[in-house]
Amino acid sequence: MILPTHLAKLIQFLQEDLAISASSMSVALKHVEQNPGPLPMILWQYGLVTIEQLDRIYDWMEGS
C-alpha cells in the first residue's frame, strides 16, 4: 500500500514517539480500509492507544 505523505508521517510519529507496534498499526489500517474514519480514533476505539496518547496524537497533528 502506498501511503500519502501526511499519513506516512503520522504512522512514523505513532511508531517512533508513542511506540505503537507494527502489528497494532496493521490492525488499525485494516479497519480504516474497511470502515473509513480518522486513524487516531480507530486506534483508541480498539484499545491500541490510551486517551493520553490520543491527546498527544491530536496535538502532533495540529502542529504538523
Please provide the ordered H/E string of secondary-structure elements: HHHH
Quantity of strands, as a count: 0
Counting DSSP H or I runs of 4 or more residues, the number of helices is 4
Q: For the residues shown, what is the average pLDDT?
A: 91
The overall number of domains is 1
**Overall geometry:** globular
Largest sheet: none
Calculate the terminal CA-CA distance, rounded to whole Å: 23 Å
- The secondary structure category is mainly alpha
Helix proportion: over 70%
**Uncertain residue ranges:** none
Rg, alpha carbons: 11 Å
Q: Strand share of the residues? A: under 5%
How would you characterize this protein structure?
There is one protein chain. This protein is mainly alpha-helical. Helices cover 70% and strands 0% of the residues. The chain has one domain (5-63). It has helices at residues 5-16, 22-34, 39-45, 51-63. Helix 3 runs antiparallel to helix 4 (51-63). The radius of gyration is 11 Å and the shape is globular.
In short:
This protein has four helices and no strands. It has 64 residues and is mainly α.
Topology:
Layout lengths: L4 H12 L5 H13 L4 H7 L5 H13 L1
Q: Any key phrases for this structure?
A:
4 helices; DUF2949; 64 residues; mainly alpha; DUF2949 domain-containing protein; 0% strand; 70% helix
